[in-house]
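Assess this today:

___
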Amino acid sequence: MQKENSIIVKDVTKDFKVFYDKGNSLKEKLLFKNRNKYENRHVLKGISFNVHKGEAIGLIGKNGCGKSTLLKLLSRIIYPNKGSIQIDGRVSSLIELGAGFHPDMSGRENIYTNASIFGLDRKEINNRLDDIIKFSELQDFLDNPVRTYSSGMYMRLAFSVAINVDADILLIDEILAVGDVSFQKKCFEKLKEIKAKGTTIVIVSHSLGQIEQICDRTIWIDNGLIKEEGIPKFVHENYLAAMEEKRLDNYVNDYNQKLSNDLEERPDFCDPNYVRTGNKFVEIIDVKLLNKNYEQSTIFKTGDKIIIKIFYKRNKDNIQGNFGVGINRDDGVYCYGTSTLIENDKMIDINEKGVVSMIIENNILLPAKYILDVAIHSYDEIAYDRIHHVMEFQVLPNKKDFGVSRIENIWYIDEIE
């Protein structure tokens, strides 16, 4: 093995036999042979990569792509059908919550059992016991059977043991998704500290933000193969864009009908997750997103022109309205909101039928999925028609910016004599 590498994975293939209805007893296997039918499922199809010593790697991909299988191969819980995996150093793993814990043993007893699995003798465990207990914050429950622990308490104890065995390589599978916010923050800080000391870290997670905080490199696994690897943020942008494009391509409406608060059928232009309120004095009858070529689209780039068209009809005579638009990121961040009253400082006379257009000449939103809200209000904010989550749209990268939105800027480089 090359001295600079902690892990070398070379052309690894892993298959599993998936039985349709496997007989458990010899009698069942003899009498019901059809139950023994199975298919060979190819989970990994020739994976190769290296992990340098002290490097933190994130593994991402959709469910079933082979991330957790790869982590189990690295921890030697299972072995590949073909290919080789070389590991240099002591491995500590957090692959399944409470793996290695005995439910009838106390937390203290499980610390000794679990740490011994990682290769520590009793003297080494005694030297680390106080640090493990202090980090877990389970002093009051340490002598209780772990079967009485919550999932968060399991995670605290498992994580506390794993990070205190002085491992050269730490493998983590989704475990940081469990636990309260303060303990998650404490875990992140500890992982950064461990990484700074030169420990190699491999994390499987669907939380891309976690990976970006900790990892130097991301490996995107798709259908058993490495789709892309590189700087986490840039790989994540391509991953999210691909997932969104696939979602849109395969989008099937599972709802034949969804009633809004006024029990009307869901309009064709509304997303299945929409919420609608209002007295319908003025009614929104269609909403369209257009690109610079005035073509309908739900995929844009940072810097693109976006046109929002709100079509309406009037159900009450002699009425004025205030048309509004709101944009939310799909993680709940409210990005922007405005209205015709804010922009024009006046109400709009409502025609029998009409369309109001909002033109965004230069979209400054950075890559993410966004949710569009539209509304028509009276001057005193009585809702004629308000639709939250009327549709979703995706913003793809144009330049390699960071943050929430792009701020136009100019750089000057001068030479000083």
